[in-house]
Amino acid sequence: MPAALRLPARSGAGAVPGAGVTTVRPLPQDPEWLWDFFMTHDLLLAPLHAAWAARRHGVGEDIAPARPPGLENLTGLDAPAALDAWARVHHALPPALRCRALLHDERAVPTRRGPLRAPDGRPLIPLHAVTVAEDDPRALGRVRRAVRAGARAMPSLVVTRRPDGSADVHGVASPGDYRGTVERTVAVLSLAADDDTDVLTEALAQATTTSRTDLSEVQYAAYRRFADRLAAAAMTGRSGGDRALFRSRY
Questions:
Q1: Is the pLDDT of residue 5 over 70?
Q2: Mean of the pLDDT values across residues 70-97?
Q3: How many domains does the chain have?
Q4: In a domain, 247, yes or no
Q5: What is the structure's pLDDT at 106?
Q6: In this model, does residue 187 exceed pLDDT 80?
Q7: pLDDT at 132 over 90
Q8: How confident is the model at residue 174 (pLDDT cuts 50, 70, 90)?
Q9: Does the pTM exceed 0.90?
Q10: What angle do CA 31, 34, 35 make, to 5 degrees?
């Protein structure tokens, strides 16, 4: 598929007002990755912004919302810019990805009633073509850098030496507690466009006009290669077994 197919998505003309260059990214209707995406907001960005906003408006430390545990001394993170970037990505998602029901219903199966089918008719975990301003994954990437730096400066394990030479090791809240969630969120949002995403974007455009989309052999091969990259990104920081299990569902 010619690379020119990416140009309308990258032009930014009218896609996201004021956002500059945009890219169409296939994002999975997968509860495991969506959990990390939403927890990046719920555990990190939203409470950090609430704490920042309260202090900016003169609320006293005794009544202002607390910063998230372990992030009290985090530096290099622009709380409003980070939250705005996450919110724009969330707004760009289709309803199927914005709905949190998939995260909490253990009986929910992403492939159920999904439109995407392998050439043999097997249902596939749906992908959705989402137009994202390139500035937003970059802004979330700055969050990732701040959390990485904080995790190095403030480790989650503290060693206390006793007079007799023995030592106690105990855990404390640290930026490292958030690192995996942020890493996986940003890694998926930052997957580079390539020929496979071009092929998938075209197939997904057809899926918006029909209740079922049967991938051709070429499209399915692109889906499988993309799933390899997706599994590596969505399981960043986890074991090879976790990655293999994630990949096996695609």
A1: no
A2: 93
A3: 1
A4: no
A5: 63
A6: yes
A7: yes
A8: confident
A9: no
A10: 85
Q: What single letter denotes the amino acid at residue 15? A: A
| For range 124-137, the mean pLDDT | 95
What mean pLDDT do residues 152-159 have? 76
Between helices 240-248 and 217-234, what is the axis angle to 10°? 150
DSSP line for 149-182: HHHHHS-SEEEEE-TTS-EEEEE---THHHHHHH
CB 83 within 8 A of CB 45: yes
50, 82 in Cβ contact below 8 A? no
Is 216 inside a domain boundary?
Answer: yes
Boundaries of domain holding 85: 3-163+175-238
Q: Using an 8 Å Cβ cutoff, are 127 and 15 in contact?
A: no
Contacts of 87 (CB under 8 A, 6+ apart): none
Q: CA dist 136 to 13, 23, 203, 245, Å? A: 17, 11, 25, 29
Q: What are phi and psi of 155, to 5 degrees?
A: -65, 155
Q: Within a domain: residue 250?
A: no
**Cα–Cα–Cα angle for 78, 80, 85, nearest 5°?**
95
pLDDT, position 108 = 67
Distance (Å, rounded) from C-alpha 72 to C-alpha 74?
6
Beta bridge partners of 133: 22
User: Is the predicted pLDDT of residue 225 greater than 50, yes or no?
Assistant: yes
Percent helix / strand / coil, the chain, rounded to 5 = 50, 10, 35
CB 93 within 8 A of CB 41: no
In a domain, 58, yes or no: yes
CA distance 65 to 223: 44
